[in-house]
Amino acid sequence: MKLYCLDVGQGTCNVLVLRGGRAVVVDCGPRGEEVLTLLKRCRVQYIERLIVSHNDSDHSGGAAAVLTAYRKAIGKVWFVKDSRFFGTPFWGKIEEEINQHHLRKDQLVRLELDEDNQPRQIYADRSEQLLLKVLAPTYYDNLDSLSKKAPNSTSGIVVLEKGERCVVFAGGAGYAEWQGVYEARKATLHCDVLAVPHHGGKVGKEKEVARLYGDAVSPRYAVISVGTENRYSHPREDVVCALVEAGASVLCTQITRRCCGNLETFRREASGRFDLGRSESQWADGRSGDSQHVACAGTVVIRLVGNRVIVERSREHRRLINVLSTKTDLRGQPLCRRTTASPQSKNPTP
Ligand SMILES: [Zn+2]
Ligand SMILES: [Zn+2]
Question: Could you tell me the pTM of the whole model?
Answer without folding.
Answer: 0.94
